[in-house]
Fold this sequence. Notes:
It is built from 4 helices and 7 strands. By secondary structure, the protein is α+β, with helices and mostly antiparallel strands. A hairpin with a 2-residue loop joins strand 6 and strand 7. Helix 1 packs across helix 2. The protein starts with 6 loop residues before the first strand and ends with a strand. 25% of the residues are buried.
Amino acid sequence: MPGLSVRPAGPQDADELLRLRVAALDGAQLTDDWHSTFRDDMRARLGTDPNLLAFVVPANEHALASCAIGIVYRGYLGPTHPTGLWGRVHTVATDPAHRRRGHARAVTAALVEALKAAGCGSIELRATEAGAPLYQSLGFGPLDGYMALRPVPKGWRR
């Protein structure tokens, strides 16, 4: 979007990325350990780990209006994955006071271009009902059949 100041996120943005990430999780029960682990990981990796990509729109010199965070993953080579790399958009979040101004579109488009430039042969994300129209307008489409198995405190969820 013209006039928006999109930039790569750096370690100095870790607290604000945490704030936006927590808001995006809307009511999820997050522990203090989760908060500190996420923040510390962002501080350690942003700007140094080429597989962690994040873009932000600043609201002012101390706060962020919006962010998009993604990861480059390495899989195996194949006809549809000649580089073996694929990307995932993990978080797109905009502060409620800054919504409906094109910030989410701007940071997501910047992240998608960075994932492509990193060599990703495909890019995926999990869309909320509210976010789906934005992602569809950027070329994302549904792909059925994915399932997940994740650890829980007493073992693995079935």
